[in-house]
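FIELD: query
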Amino acid sequence: MRLKLVVIMSVLAALIGAGASIGIILFIFSSMRSIWTPGPLLLVVLLFPIATVLFGSIFVYRHTARRRKLQAFLTAVLSLFLTLCFFLLTSFVTGRLKSTQPPPPAGPRATK
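FIELD: result
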């Protein structure tokens, strides 16, 4: 089994797919409100990771001699997991740094 090929293609597929989607979402869309209203451009952006995972799995399938289906499946699962990790990491990094606190009570305070 060519584990190096599986790991390298999984990492490349996740980096290219998630990186392209994240880059387009962060730098092309001017406001985050456009992400919450699904449109055809957003659906195309979210197809990048799926396309790269599929391409990586096909590449591994074509470049191995034995256990092709298993290696292609491992590549797909590992690259999907890494893509999800990249999306979650990006959402943590680009999220709000301050936690939102509830406002203090409006009534007068009793002092002792």
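FIELD: remark
Helices lie at 3-28, 33-36, 40-62, 68-94.
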